[in-house]
Amino acid sequence: MRPGAQVLGVADPDEWLELTIKLRRKKALPAPAGNAGGKPLTRAELEAQYGADPADIEKVRTVLTTLGLKILKEDPVTCTVRAGGTAAVVESIFQVRLFHYSHPKGNYRGRKGDVHVPAELAGIILAVFGLDNRKMVKRRPLRRKIHALNLAQRAAASRSWFYPAELATIYAFPAGDGQGQTVGLLEFGGGFFADDLATFCQNANVAVPTVKPVSVNNTPTNQRDGAEGEVMLDVEVVAGVCPKSTIVVYFSTFDEGGWVSAVDTAVHDEQNPLSVLSISWGYAEDAPGAWTAGALDAINDSLQAAALLGVTICVAAGDDGSDDEVGDGHAHVDFPSSSPYVLAVGGTTLKRSATGVVTETAWKDGDGLRKDNGGSTGGGVSTYFARPSWQTVNINSVNPGSIVGRVVPDVAADASANTGYWTVVDGQGGASGGTSAAAPLWASLIARLNASLGKPVGYLSPLLYQAAANGKPFGESGCRDITSGNNETASIGGYVAGTGYDAVTGWGVPIGSALLNGLK
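Below the sequence we write its predicted structure tokens.
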């Protein structure tokens, strides 16, 4: 039960539930080779070698239908079975009790008791999602500064904010417009609105890209629920840098089952095969009442599959510094940015003087917390995921007794709303920011790199920590180091930017031309 929740009553026995059931793989996924060598798997190869065994799927189908569930979909490549049934049937099969709860963050259905898999399916079913549909604590709305500016004012070089293409120039992105590239975005609320995009593209003087909204498990794609600002920020950042790309926007529910389904849908979308995916959402990996171990493992497994397929996944590192919106005094890192299979993206504050001189520090506005109208880059050491062998950095957690965990972020880019990105949302233009802007900017860079190289960049993160031709880590030569600022927002402290890699801005901000040369 989520802290602060109160029981409203038992679930109606006839209430319809739809479950996402994860099955074991034929064999465990191997460590991705990344750019260090090896060739990405095709989706057919992934299914044949590491998908679910057809015999396991058949057994799950037979047992669950006999017990009263209806099979809605079977997918061997994602090792998933979707099934539906009444609450009474579900409670009987998995030996749990379902209740409805009230909570200040939104009412939800939850369970009491551990999930028990039917004896015949022990070892085959690894996790069941959908019994509990509590919403993950949503990120607070992005801080936007609304500007009713005329064309001359928007064009003025003296303004504090940037069009995405201007940041692409500052960061020396390879030339291009994203032609032939398909960029995916994961969204957990809000909607896509073509009229806002058209206005933005007119403001930014770029072509309007092709955008394909995709509903995951019948999730609406056109909600004006306050989250549309996040959606349009993601879309418009990519549109501003890669206007000739195809942008596929996957909408799902902001609960564990929605996350599992969204990642699987995007990574394995055969109609829209992606080479890069951007995720601007997440929550602290160890926050009370948030992620379960089953969800962390299932999503991380899917992200590992993406790395094997050569899909680069850029994930925002969070916007509340070392506290990461938890408020218990300890330092936390955001998931899924803490997964070892993604490119974790932190934030900076970039300023350009009237003479064109650029200065950049780690992002921290105000006290670093959005609840106080501030914000700061996430970053730190995971308490769940062990440090991968390729992440050869000497950074310790500020939390006493913590594991030697994955360090976040890997890289960074401009994130402050004070010097952020021009966006159009609900018909209004304004400046917006957050690491949720930095992540799609990096995804846009990956798309341009893919186009320039004629092949996908793929699993980039390990390469950043390996020696380049000059003997220095590739991240050091491919990024501009950010050496000042901190993300200290938790009572216990946080992390400080300095020379070389740090847990505030990673290797720094991109030098696109250097990255391109190093990847050739």
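The mean pLDDT is 93.
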